[in-house]
Amino acid sequence: MINLTNNDKEEMLKKEKGYLLKNNKKYYYKLALPSLEGMELVIEDLAKLVDIKCANYEMLKIDDMYFYISLDVGYPNQFITASSLGIKSTNLYDIWDYLEKISFNNSKELMLKIIKIYLFDILIVNPDRRYINWGFIINNNKILDVCILDNELSFTFNNLYISTNGKDYKIKEIPKEYIKGINDLFDFLYTSSNDFIELFKEMYNVINPKVVKEILQKHILDENDQLDMFRVFEENYTLITNLLNKNLVL
After folding, report:
1. CA-CA-CA-CA torsion for 129, 185, 112, 83, nearest 10 degrees?
2. Which residues make beta-bridge pairs with 21?
3. Which of 48, 57, 73, 145 has the smallest number of CB atoms closer than 10 Å to its CB?
């Protein structure tokens, strides 16, 4: 638990997003989005289940507002976003080629971690994976690991496709860009190693409805929000189930 001073809290309330220095360590904080309080904790728990490195968040309440706070994800090393490292394409083959140029000795290991992130995002319905919310842990110019952060829009389709009361829920059309992401990913799976297909099936079996429902209930504060998020997950899980059964893309 991080001990915050009154000055720390005042700064957080004023800026809503930024950094704090505590005991020579840098902590990042941000205001939790309305109706999504607890989502970072949900995704952190799910990431641990499939061995994906994720920012380690705490959620705390200041006055009537909820904040996430986490130790700098690179500590005691350095974190560099994918964008800052020079990755400009979302195509997995392009990323693999680039990693072989800059980190040849462990490019295969790193690429496996990145592929897991892509698979993970499909399972958690995350349409918001950008070059600045995943990246690399680096020490002395050597890439050690891959890490994700800022996963708060998972299970929501950017909050555009869920109800506000948890009762009159209706699935609207799944965003075309999200379906394109699934198509691109399955295209990669079926044109690369069978090992990646088996990996996805393993992750699919781990991140199942029972597990997701329990973790949502553990961290999401509002029961109606839990229900909305779980229904989005179920719709997506059914879509993936059909694809796996047919070995086809949409």
Report:
1. -30
2. 26
3. 48
